[in-house]
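Annex B. Sample input.
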Amino acid sequence: MLTLREVTKEYKVGAFGGKTVAAVKGVSFDVVPGEVVSLIGESGSGKSTIGRMILGLHPVTSGTITFDGRPVRAGKDYYRHVQGIFQDPFSSFNPVFKADRVFAMIKEAYYPDVPAAEWAERVETSLRDVRLNPAQVLGKYPHQLSGGQLQRLLIARALLLDIKLLVADEITSMLDASTRIDVLNLLAELKTRGLGVLYITHDLSLGTYLAERTVVLRRGRVAEMGPTDEVFGDPLHPYTRELLSAVPRLHESWDDAAPVESCLYHDKGGTGGLLEAAPGHFVACSALPSCPSGEV
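Annex B, continued. Sample output.
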């Protein structure tokens, strides 16, 4: 369904744009129908930039992003199948309009010929699919609704389209713990219907809760990727180990990750790109001083 191959994104910097900085460097991965892929990394690792390129909001400097075998093209036909939901649900709504205006905009753009009564029934069904009571949310202004309700309204909006892929960028970071689990369970339910989800997060626990596969980013490059239980159960890259060691545990002291003495990538003969250390489990050069290939 979604395929990224050697995707790079560079930005011009400096007073006259004479220099460039690479936010994303040679990233490749796939998302297939009915699968949740977690894109994990610290702030500034390039996660959101990748999400925006997939949504056609930022152009790709080099490499390719394809959806169903065709290059990504921002526009109505593409957004009928691919939608994004972002970190701050309040910024997705105009505060002077009632929240259900998002449904009216979908009708105007994609279904202008659908009778009003039929559209109202579709909206109500979509809201109940995301466990919202239409009577409690329709006709309300954004400030009258919680962050969790607004996020679910945005998911309901996406479901009104023939959506195949959802890019969920830090969608639970502003929600309380109970609402966060509700939204994650909703995404898990939607994937059983064949929806593919790219779940962008810096929260390791949420990534492991939801995703079948995980892609770990470091400084714009893939450090490690593979089945989620293998990436977190047997992390091969020092950066992945550092991320895991940074998670506080009540019964342990919070120490820095132990240094790794050698690089698995070169120990097993890696020559470029990613090394497949186990079936479906890929790791990059660890960028330790002993590694000649430079930083990841």
